[in-house]
Design brief:
- The structure is a single chain.
- The protein contains eight helices and ten strands.
- By secondary structure, it is α/β, with parallel strands linked by helices.
- The protein has a single domain (12-283), classed as Rossmann fold, CATH 3.40.50.720.
- Helix 1 (21-32) crosses helix 8 (225-236), helix 3 (73-87) packs parallel to helix 4 (111-139) and helix 4 runs parallel beside helix 5 (161-181).
- The longest helix has 29 residues, at 111-139.
């Protein structure tokens, strides 16, 4: 019996961080593949607008938005419960919600910002796996959980320190959860995007970012959210039935080129002259303060 590649017909998915960027592109691919989707995001305005747009494009009743802070367990539970109650079950969870997080030199990072970064980027993935797996186990038909990591998890100078550390944790959580949940026929995989042109990545400086990328990315394609969404759709579908515990690079050959240390990602300086918190596309304003220039080492010496 023939079947469309990447089919998710009659499946139900939860996508966090689903109101924009990679999350939104994945929602669109899931819907095109026949799934029903519960979209979770902190940005309520963007989420409601996105669902309205999807309805106008023929997906009325197949997508539902719920405001969620993935660092809060009760809100994650509610998100999974909505999928079960309104769409009859849960088959796929894409733990994609993220922020830029704590930025700046390690000697200047605020503990509060560090903790907020890990709360969203790592605790949020843990909670998504925990409660997604519970719903899948209760239904007894298995499922697929996909987590957004990053090439920053796999190399130095791939991103801000706190961000990179959270993504490295996601890679390890993915492997361990895959082993533990295999007996329930629940697969767990991670995706490591390279430089993907979203607002969170270029922060309004797309042209500058492209100039840097041209020097270090082997692929001539510009990384788009749809490139990641295609991998996530594959991992969500039965076409990847024997794939679990893996970390899938989708980076146009960026990491293979081995030049992160020479040409780090756009915006990643050796020692940034600013510190603070990047809240990404949550709708919250960023908290940035600029640092005083370091004194010349020779200053005051005879």
């Amino acid at each position: 019996m023939s079947r469309d590649f990447g089919s998710l017909q009659d499946r139900t998915a939860v996508v966090t961080g689903g109101a924009s960027g990679i999350g939104a592109a994945t929602v669109e691919q899931f819907l095109a593949a026949g799934a029903r989707v519960v979209i979770g995001d902190m940005n309520a305005e963007a989420g409601e607008r996105f669902v309205a747009e999807l309805s106008e494009r023929g997906h009325q009743g197949k997508a539902r938005f719920q405001t969620v802070d993935v660092s809060q367990e009760e809100q994650v539970v509610e998100l999974m419960d909505i999928a079960v109650a309104e769409f009859g079950g849960l088959d796929v969870v894409f733990n994609n919600a993220g922020i830029g997080g704590a930025i700046g030199p390690i000697t200047e990072l605020e503990v509060e910002h560090w903790d907020q970064t890990f709360a969203v980027m790592t605790r949020g993935v843990f909670l998504g796996i925990k409660h997604g797996a519970r719903a899948m186990q209760k239904a007894g038909r298995g499922g697929s959980i996909i987590n957004t990591a990053s090439i920053a998890a796999l190399s130095g100078k791939g991103g801000p320190l706190a961000y990179s550390a959270t993504k490295a944790a996601v890679v390890n959580i993915t492997m361990n959860a895959a082993v533990e949940l295999a007996e329930s026929n629940i697969r767990v995989n991670a995706v490591c995007p390279g430089i993907i042109f979203t607002e969170l990545m270029h922060r309004g400086r797309a042209a500058e970012a492209e100039q840097v990328i041209d020097k270090i990315q082997p692929s001539t394609l510009r990384g788009e959210p749809e490139h990641i969404a295609s991998m996530v759709r594959f991992l969500a579908s039965d076409d990847s039935a024997f794939v679990t515990g893996t970390t899938q690079l989708v980076d146009g050959g960026y990491l293979a080129n081995g030049l992160l240390g020479v040409n780090p990602l756009p915006g990643v300086a050796k020692r940034p002259n600013y510190t603070g918190m990047n809240h990404g596309t949550t709708g919250q304003g960023n908290e940035i303060r600029f640092l005083e220039p370091k004194a010349d080492k020779s200053e005051g010496q005879a």
